[in-house]
């Protein structure tokens, strides 16, 4: 083996062979093991050089497609955080492809336990039970640019590749659950008809099932258990995950849709210190993971998943940045949603929005036109950081979800909170000089009840997860409206349907950036399971027949999205308090009580009916205006619109109550109970 180069980490082939380079500051030597496509016979080569902690070597004749893994010789002292064990085959952190399935077997653990519970080194070879890294060519150039949807026009659609396609009747059975299924013409047609702009895919990085799920006969459905940050999971591919992912992205781009990836750079699938050794732990445990300062054998567990990536280390930051660059350039994605994002800004003394990693992500050249979205909480100390991320970042806004659910189910004193959310949550984001688009508004996501379940169940029903219904959220701000679960009572079903529309209308007519959960547009249910991470079955897979059972509901959602798209007053990219002068126009947002007057501060505590008036006075044209009328009471309400200077009368553009009961007499509007209406003039 020749010395090779330390410059490019991973396995990099050319016409004469492959350069291998992997980081381990604690290793005494590193071997690369080559495997045939079938069987376990292998060739072993020692990497001859180490430069700055990077072990490297060039193997002539080694071609793309070769299976390989690493073995690390070095200190084994678990209680001091040193976990080198050459009997464990390790996945390359920079592998672009991973071949084979992970199997739970005693050999995947780097230890055995003696009678006193002490960890002794395991000598059993793990190679038959762990996936192999694959040598892959890099693309010669960047992928074509996506549609680059302006933030103000963006509507996210969160979905799981497998769950979205497994039961779609138009998709060939062999393509279901795959990247190929995601680019099926009927899938693209549905997304375009709906009117969303950006498909946010749940994790696609290679991941493994948790041990307790394997023991229960379950699998990880969501994918938040990564073992590599470059390779697409083989679960979503038929033959070649890289090519199939790129083809999917190209098809979505051709349809005018962005692709956003949910990425998990906060922990790995190796779990706690008693978890399996698959890669990072065996390469350089104390580099890749945060450990307790006084006891390096114990992991800091700010993720709640057993381990936490050590983003204070420059090599870990480089790994994350290189991964982002790869997915943005070679794979062509348009943005990233960062799971448990406060981890990326955590220092030993707490979260910092100026952490080097957050700054590096914000300034990475390949991400300059990409969308950056934080899930702004983690389970660690002071982990709730909503509103605290740097200026380029948007954030999932769970306060929007909670406010909308609480208001519409009838909780007292929530009108003022709802108004803040309708306004784009200026109380959260404006102080950091961000725009309303920084607030990613949602009512439901993968984590929690579906929209239909939010109005069908008051309690979680997670028995199928095998944890005695103790997992998942207990505070869902949901209501069953009289019966727990499905019912034949038409009066209850009518209220449930109305409330689903109320919440979706509130979402899509609010300032900020809306996010829809796949399936909510046609009534997907998980049977009351609000933590479907282990439900890779018909519970988690979308039932597309629901689309046929109530096509009018889907049509209503499409109409709301068209209204948002067509009326720029519903997506103002500035915070407006009272009146704002912009580009020669005057824009105003006013909060109106039932008497047509400015709503007073003390009224928010008790009144559940109000109007949001948004108006624009262009320099030469008549006023344009919209009025969003909200009635959270169960009884009809009479709402008076303010005096209009427009030459055109108000007209009802949309109502969650349909045509029943709503009427306009001049400036007087009768609004049915539990309903929302959009009026326009100009």
Task: Spell out the blueprint of helices and strands.
Blueprint: E1 10-14, E2 17-23, E3 29-35, E4 43-46, E5 49-51, E6 54-60, E7 67-73, E8 76-77, E9 82-83, E10 97-99, E11 111-113, E12 119-121, E13 132-134, E14 156-159, H1 161-165, H2 179-182, H3 185-194, E15 198-201, H4 211-216, H5 241-254, E16 258-263, H6 280-288, E17 291-292, E18 295-299, H7 314-329, E19 335-338, E20 346-347, E21 350-351, H8 356-363, E22 371-374, E23 394-397, H9 398-409, H10 415-422, H11 426-429, E24 439-442, H12 451-454, H13 490-509, E25 513-517, H14 545-549, H15 551-566, E26 578-582, E27 585-592, E28 609-617, E29 624-631, E30 637-640, E31 651-655, E32 663-665, E33 668-671, E34 675-681
Parallel strand pairs: 14-15, 14-25, 15-16, 16-19, 19-22, 22-23, 23-24, 24-25
Antiparallel strand pairs: 1-2, 2-6, 3-4, 3-7, 5-6, 7-13, 8-9, 10-13, 11-12, 17-18, 20-21, 26-27, 27-28, 28-29, 29-34, 30-33, 31-34, 32-33
Helix pairs in contact: 9-10, 9-13, 13-15
Q: What is shown here, in short?
A:
With 682 residues, the protein is an alpha+beta fold. Among the domains are: 10-134, Immunoglobulins (Immunoglobulin-like, Sandwich); 398-448 and 459-467 and 502-575, Alpha-Beta Barrel (TIM Barrel), CATH 3.20.20; 576-681, Golgi alpha-mannosidase II (Immunoglobulin-like), CATH 2.60.40.1180. It starts with 9 loop residues before the first strand and ends with a strand.
């Amino acid at each position: 083996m020749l010395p090779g180069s330390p410059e490019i980490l991973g396995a990099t082939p050319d016409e004469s062979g492959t350069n291998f380079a992997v980081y381990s500051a604690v290793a005494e030597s590193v071997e690369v093991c080559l495997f045939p496509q079938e069987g376990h016979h292998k060739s072993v080569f020692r990497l001859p050089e180490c430069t700055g902690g990077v072990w490297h070597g060039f193997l002539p004749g080694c071609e793309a497609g070769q299976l390989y893994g690493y073995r690390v010789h070095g200190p084994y002292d678990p209680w001091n955080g040193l976990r080198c064990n050459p009997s464990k085959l390790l996945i390359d952190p920079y592998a672009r492809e991973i071949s084979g399935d992970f199997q739970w077997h005693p050999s995947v653990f780097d230890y055995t336990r003696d009678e006193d519970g002490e960890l002794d080194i395991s000598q059993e070879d793990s190679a038959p039970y762990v996936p192999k890294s694959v040598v892959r060519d890099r693309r010669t150039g960047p992928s074509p640019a996506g549609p680059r949807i302006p933030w103000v026009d963006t509507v996210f659609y969160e979905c799981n590749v497998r769950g979205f396609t497994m039961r779609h009747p138009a998709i060939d059975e062999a393509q279901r659950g795959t990247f190929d299924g995601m680019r099926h013409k009927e899938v693209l047609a549905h997304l375009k008809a709906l009117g969303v702009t950006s498909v946010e895919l749940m994790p696609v990085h290679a991941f493994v099932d948790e041990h307790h799920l394997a023991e229960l006969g379950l699998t990880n459905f969501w994918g938040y258990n990564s073992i590599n940050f470059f390779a697409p999971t083989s679960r979503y591919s038929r033959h070649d995950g890289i090519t199939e992912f790129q083809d999917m992205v190209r098809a979505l781009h051709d349809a005018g849709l962005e692709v956003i990836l949910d990425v998990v750079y906060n922990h790995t699938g190796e779990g706690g210190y008693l978890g399996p050794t698959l890669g990072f732990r065996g390469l350089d445990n104390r580099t890749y993971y945060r450990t307790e300062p006084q006891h390096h054998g114990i992991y800091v567990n700010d993720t709640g998943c057993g381990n936490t990536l050590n983003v204070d280390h420059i090599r870990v930051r480089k790994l994350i940045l290189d991964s982002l660059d790869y997915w943005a350039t070679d794979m062509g994605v348009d943005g990233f949603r960062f799971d448990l994002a406060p981890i990326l800004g955590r220092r030993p003394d707490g979260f910092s929005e100026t952490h080097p990693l957050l700054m590096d992500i914000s300034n990475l050249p390949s991400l300059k036109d990409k969308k950056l979205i934080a899930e702004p909480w983690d389970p660690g100390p002071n982990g709730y950081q909503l509103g605290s991320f740097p200026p380029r970042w948007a954030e999932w806004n769970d306060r929007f979800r909670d406010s909308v659910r609480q208001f519409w189910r009838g909780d007292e004193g929530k009108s003022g909170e709802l108004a803040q959310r309708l306004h784009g949550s200026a109380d959260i984001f404006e102080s950091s000089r961000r725009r309303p688009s920084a607030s990613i508004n949602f009512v439901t996501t993968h984590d929690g009840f579906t929209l239909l379940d939010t109005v069908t169940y008051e309690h979680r029903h997670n028995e199928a997860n095998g944890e005695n219904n103790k997992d998942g959220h207990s505070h869902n701000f949901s209501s069953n409206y009289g019966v727990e679960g499905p019912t034949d009572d038409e009066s209850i079903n009518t209220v449930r349907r109305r409330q689903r529309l109320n919440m979706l209308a509130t979402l899509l007519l609010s300032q900020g950036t809306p996010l829809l959960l796949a399936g909510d547009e046609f009534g997907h249910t998980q049977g009351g399971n609000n933590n479907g991470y282990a439900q890779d079955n018909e519970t988690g897979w979308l039932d597309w027949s629901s689309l046929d059972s109530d096509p009018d509901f889907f049509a209503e959602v499409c109409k709301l999205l068209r209204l948002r798209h067509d009326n720029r007053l519903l997506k103002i990219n500035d915070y407006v308090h009272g009146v704002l002068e912009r580009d020669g126009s005057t824009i105003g947002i006013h909060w109106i009580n039932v008497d047509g007057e400015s709503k007073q501060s003390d009224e928010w505590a008790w009144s559940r009916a109000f109007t949001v008036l948004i108006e624009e006075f262009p320099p030469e044209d008549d006023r344009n205006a919209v009025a969003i009328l909200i009635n959270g009471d169960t009884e009809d309400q009479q709402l008076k619109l303010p005096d209009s200077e427009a030459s055109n009368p108000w007209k009802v553009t949309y109502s969650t109550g349909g045509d029943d009961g709503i009427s306009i007499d001049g400036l007087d509007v009768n609004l049915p109970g539990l309903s929302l209406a959009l009026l326009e003039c100009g």
